[in-house]
Every structure is written in structure tokens, then in C-alpha cells.
Description:
Rossmann fold, 7-stranded parallel sheet, two-stranded parallel ribbon, 10 helices, binds nicotinamide-adenine-dinucleotide, UDP-N-acetylglucosamine 4-epimerase, Epimerase_deHydtase
Amino acid sequence: MMKEETRSTILITGGAGFIGSNLSEYFLSKGYKVVCLDNFATGHRHNLKDFINNPNYRLIEGDIRNAADCANAVKGVDYVLHQAALGSVPRSINDPVTTNDVNVSGFLNMLVAATDAKVKRFVYAASSSTYGDSVGLPKVEDVIGKPLSPYAITKYVNELYAEIFSKTYGLETIGLRYFNVFGRKQDPKGAYAAVIPKFVMQLMQHESPVINGDGNYSRDFTYIDNVIQMNELAITTTNELAVNTVYNTAFGDRNTLNNLVNYLKEFLSKYDPEIANVAIEYGPNRAGDIPHSLASIDKAKELLAYDPKFSLQQGLEEAVDWYWNNLR
Ligand SMILES: NC(=O)c1ccc[n+]([C@@H]2O[C@H](COP(=O)([O-])OP(=O)(O)OC[C@H]3O[C@@H](n4cnc5c(N)ncnc54)[C@H](O)[C@@H]3O)[C@@H](O)[C@H]2O)c1
């Protein structure tokens, strides 16, 4: 007999994006029904090709800035995994108004829709950027600094709204503060591409990646499968103490940008030995960037029994293999 949970319906906003499409694929494989709401602002149809015809999958093309689209999407839904947003610190510096419209007003629309539809739980993509200028390492959930970018403000406002909706309307929420997520399907193209897919594409084409700064900035790079695990734990936990709060979503280790590029060259040169000889270039530091980032994952371990399986190296080997076979 099917377990109760396997018949549940999950709405994944931003489901055509990197994280959302990976979540969709995973939860469909577990027998859930998945509804996707996306306006394809930064998502892609090719991310959906492996499951678009799955009878348990439904795509709604719509915009979270439109309250009617949100209300339509949450109909009959048990859980929301809210991923839709405009990512990228530089994008938010270039266009803070659009970032705010999507990430704050859109988020609020989704909270209202989820509350009205009485969903069981609203899990959302928060961000490590909320730690802002706090200098202590590792980052623990209760100690944040001042935001360093418009994007960081929007992600912090999400947490504030979620808390108020839990307290005021009884909506169960869990925020997942993602730390530099990477893996299959992450978009390597465009001005706002994330560093790992961008560098992988450049190295595959024997172009020199440009590191902002001296390469000693560090990040808690987090493989997508660890993020999927956190999302699954967030919707399945029955621990009452585990809801209406936020969690660092990371591996719990940090690597410098120089380390990262060295791993990429090492792993890619197994496919093409010439890549070992591609030179690295260095440019100026970028506005809004946090120098160092490392998560404490103790809270997730304790309250959600989180047990991340992929270190940076383990995740990179899989990611590089995927890029080599899919995007070359
Ligand atoms: N990738 C990371 O390292 C990282 C780190 C911290 C937080 N996050 C957050 O995780 C979430 C997913 O990020 P991602 O890396 O998959 O990015 P992504 O750009 O690949 O996915 C975002 C998706 O949201 C959709 N979207 C954007 N505006 C929309 C709108 N107005 N209405 C409906 N859909 C809209 C896009 O089309 C896209 O499919 C975002 O909320 C992001 O802020 C990501």
C-alpha cells in the first residue's frame, strides 16, 4: 500500500529553475504529485524535459507577482516548496526594484495564497546572504549581521514575513538558508551565472576563468542532493520544535575559490587533459560579496536529523560529469 505522504501534492514555485527542477524530479520519483509555477524569467524548458510528460506533473506558467496565479497554483496542494525568486547579488544591485517585486511582493503573495488554501506547510528558499556583515564563523542561525545587498534584504524580509505568518495566521513555515548551491542543471550562461557552472563551461572551452579578488574568499559550497535532503526533511518532519524557524542548508565545510578552481581543473582534466594547463585570471573584488561563509549545520542535524552526503569534492565530481555529458 502507498504511504500517505507519497500521495501528497507539492507546489514547487520556480520549478523550472536549477533547484526547483531538481526538487521536482526527486519528489516525482518518490511518488508525490508535483505542480510547478514558473514564469521562465531565469528557468528553462529543457530543465523539465525528463518529467514534463509524467502524469503526476503539472506545469502552470504564471508569475508570483500576480496574486491570482498564486491562488490558482496552491489549489489542492499539501506542501509548498517556494523557490521562485530573482537570484544574484549583482542583478539586485543593477535592478533593485524588480528584485524586490519578485522576491518580496511575490513572496508575500505566495504566503497569502498558501494561508488561504490551508496548506500543511510552507517551506521556502532563504539565503546565507542574510548573514550579511556578521564576521563570526561558523554562521549560526540566531546571529546575523546587516545585509550587504538589495538581494540580501529581500531574503531577510522573507524570513520576517514567514515568522509573522506563522504567528498571526498559524501557517507552518520552514526557511532553508541555502549556502552556494551547485550541481546538475545549474545555468552556466548569462551575466548572472553562478561561479561553478560558469567556470566549468569556461574550462571546457579552454577559456581562463576570472576569480573576483585574490581567490582566498571562501564558501560553504553545497551540492544539490544535500539541498534536496533538507527540503524532504522540512516537509516530512513531525517534530513540533522543528517548524516555524530557519535552517542553514549547507555541507558545513568551506573552500576558497582557489581550491574550487583547482578541483574543477583536476576533475575536468580526466575528460580532457589540456584543461590542466588553462591559466586562471584574477580581477577586482565584487560589491556585496561576503568574504567568508561557513555554516554551522548543528541545528538541522539536531532538529531534522540532517545528514549531508556530499562534500564539495564528491558533488563536483558528479556535477562535472553531468556538465561534460550534457553541455559540451
Ligand atoms: N543557487 C544558490 O546558490 C542559492 C543560494 C541561496 C538561495 N537561493 C534561492 O533558491 C531559489 C532557487 O534558486 P536557483 O538557484 O534555482 O535559481 P534559478 O534562477 O535557477 O531558479 C529560480 C526560478 O524562479 C523562476 N521565477 C523567477 N521570477 C519568477 C516570478 N516572478 N514568477 C514565477 N517564477 C519566477 C525562474 O524562472 C526560475 O525558474 C531562489 O529563491 C534563490 O534566491 C539559491
